[in-house]
Design a protein that fits this description.
It is built from 19 helices and 21 strands. By secondary structure, it is an alpha/beta fold. The chain folds into 3 domains: about 180 residues, NAD(P)-binding Rossmann-like Domain (Rossmann fold, 3-Layer(aba) Sandwich); about 220 residues, FAD/NAD(P)-binding domain (3-Layer(bba) Sandwich), CATH 3.50.50.60; about 70 residues, no CATH class. It has an 8-stranded mixed β-sheet, sandwiched between helices. A 6-stranded parallel β-sheet has the order 6-14-7-8-10-9. A 3-stranded antiparallel β-sheet has the order 11-12-13, with no helix packed on it.
């Protein structure tokens, strides 16, 4: 018998559990997937944009793994202070695999970064994705009174937030975006979005599919400056570029060279893609963001850029920083602040340079925030291979208690798989009550109340609407909260 805990139920955690099921020949294998949130799926639920339904459908594949009879899901389980310690987990499981991602954002390190109206793109994504921590993450509804917004970054997250700012609310209504966010986006004053990159188009990290979506927005016009693009030597002759990069350059070239229509009406929104601009200061006006000062850059001949000493101020009342993620320390585990990862060897956690028996990592906390969702598969497989090679020794260690009673004795109230299904039913009921499809519950209180739907809180999901279960949805600040 081998009992394993996987901490984190996003793609890296679920792929780790799936790989354990596929590779293990140990009889009596049991896997508990633990998550701090009451809901599974990690960034697939809380990071993929609501209008990317095909990618979000990956939840169905993750669900199939988590519904295996050898796996138990326990949400609402905090690891570290206020929850269960890493040492205690090693008393409950033969092995623990930490798949906790990279929860922090990189900062720009420039003056004005903390002005009201400046926040990380992740905070904005959490808000429109109904992450229950969003209220504490710092995005405020009144910032959508901005006329002009600057998105700093040239990856898929930057493209996502620029697209959501430029998309009409009616196009988001069929998605699971929370109702308060939908209403706020419907009344948004943003009419101009600048997406800026410090390097050229051949160094951009967005994918061609994401890029093309910007040109298909019915309520926005995309503009690019051909002179800026031409500063990139690869732009003039993209034939030698890797195919994905070449396709990006070709899309941008098409936009830059497209003839202007003979007669046109002013579009509702304009999305400007800018290159070779490095932010040096976020400017203040009337106590909040008033613009961004950029230094123009130029290729340095080595794949990077150099400053030119010329500057440009772009007016904006909202700045969203999309310049990457950082891992954060997990109390009880070693941590390398330089890389934002846990030191490891093929997934085995290293303490003072030596493998720590029974402790493993996978996903971003192992390799850093790189790759796409599918990159987590080989990453998880490598870790599982190491774990199973250690299994004969790990299985000899006696365990102290059964996990679920021990978690409850620690003062935790784990949300089991049945509780997650209650949340799903409650979100379907909430959507029906609002005349929409399934709509996410956006706060801790509502999620935990819904997870107890079969008991004292009433059967949300078995009713035709929220009101039928004695509930109503009340807006509290920027949140739509379930109250009785």
């Amino acid at each position: 018998m081998l009992r394993i805990a996987v901490v984190g139920s996003g793609p890296s955690g679920v792929y780790t559990a799936q790989s354990l099921l596929a590779q293990s020949t140990v009889p009596g294998l049991r896997i508990d997937v633990l998550d701090r949130l009451p809901c599974p799926y990690g960034l697939v639920r809380y990071g993929v944009a609501p209008d990317h339904e095909k990618i979000k459908s990956l939840q169905n594949n993750l669900r199939t793994v988590l519904e295996d009879e050898r796996i138990s899901f326990y949400g609402n389980v905090q690891i570290g202070p206020g929850g269960v310690s890493t040492d205690r987990l090693l008393g409950l499981y033969h092995a623990v695999v930490y798949c906790v991602g990279a929860a922090a954002d990189r900062r720009l390190g420039i003056p004005g970064e903390d002005l009201p109206g400046s926040c990380s793109a992740t905070a904005f994504v959490s808000w429109y994705s109904a992450h229950p921590d969003a209220a504490a993450d710092g995005f405020r509804l009144d910032w959508l009174t901005a006329r002009s917004a600057v998105v700093i970054g040239a990856g898929n997250v930057a493209v996502d937030v620029a697209r959501i700012l430029s998309r009409g609310a009616d196009e988001l209504r069929p998605t699971d975006v929370p109702h308060a966010a939908l209403d706020a986006l419907a009344s948004s004053a943003v009419r101009e979005v600048h997406m800026t990159a410090r390097r050229g188009p051949s160094q951009a990290k967005f994918t061609t599919k994401e890029l093309r979506e910007l040109g298909a927005l019915p309520g926005a016009e995309v503009t690019v400056d051909g002179a800026e693009l031409a500063l990139d030597p690869a732009y003039l002759d993209p034939a030698t570029l890797p195919a994905p990069v070449r396709r990006n350059v070709e899309v941008l070239r098409g936009w830059a060279t497209a003839p202007a229509p003979a007669s046109r009406r002013e579009p509702p929104r304009v999305l400007r893609l800018r290159f070779f601009l490095r932010p040096v200061e976020i400017l203040e006006r009337d106590g909040r963001v008033g613009g961004v000062r950029f230094e123009h850059t130029a290729p340095d001949g080595s794949g990077g850029v150099r400053g030119t000493g010329t500057y440009e101020d772009v007016e904006a009342q909202l700045v969203l920083r999309a310049v990457g993620y950082l891992g954060v320390p997990l109390t009880g585990l070693p941590f390398d602040p330089a890389t934002g990862t846990v030191p490891h060897a093929a997934g085995r956690v290293l303490r003072d340079g030596a493998p720590s028996p029974g402790e493993y990592v996978a996903g971003w906390i192992k390799r850093g925030p790189t790759g796409v969702i599918g990159t987590n598969r080989p990453c998880a497989k490598e870790t599982v291979t190491s774990l199973l090679a250690d299994a004969p020794t790990l299985a000899l260690r006696p365990l102290t208690d059964e996990p679920l009673p021990a978690l409850r004795q620690a003062g935790l109230r784990p949300v089991e798989w049945s509780g997650w299904l209650d949340i799903e039913r409650a979100e379907a009921a909430l959507g029906r009550s609002l005349g929409r499809g399934s709509v996410k519950i956006p706060d801790w209180e509502g999620l935990l109340a819904a997870s107890r739907g079969g008991g004292e809180w009433g059967a949300w999901g078995d009713r035709c609407g929220v009101a039928d279960a004695g509930w109503q949805m009340t807006e509290v600040g920027s949140r739509l909260t379930a109250v009785r």
